[in-house]
Design brief:
59 residues, three-stranded antiparallel β-sheet, two-stranded antiparallel ribbon, binds zinc ion
Length: 59
C-alpha cells in the first residue's frame, strides 16, 4: 500500500501514515499514534469529500 499523508486532527501537523504504524479499524478507518503529539488518532481513508484535495498547510 502506498504511503499516505494526513493531517493530525489533534495538532494539525502532517504525518506520514505507514503500514507498520497503523491499525485498521475497518475498510475506511485506521488508527495510529501521531509522531508529533503522541496522541492516538483515528483517520479516514476515504478520499471523497471536503478533504479530498489534500491536507492544508497552516501558517
Ligand atoms: Zn498530532
Amino acid at each position: 500500500m502506498a504511503t499516505l499523508v494526513r493531517t493530525c486532527p489533534k495538532c494539525r501537523k502532517l504525518m506520514w501514515v505507514k503500514d507498520e504504524q497503523m491499525t485498521s479499524l475497518n475498510d475506511s478507518t485506521i488508527r495510529m499514534t501521531c509522531p508529533h503529539c503522541r496522541q492516538l488518532v483515528r483517520l479516514s481513508l476515504v478520499t471523497q469529500g471536503e478533504n479530498a484535495a489534500g491536507p492544508k498547510m497552516g501558517h
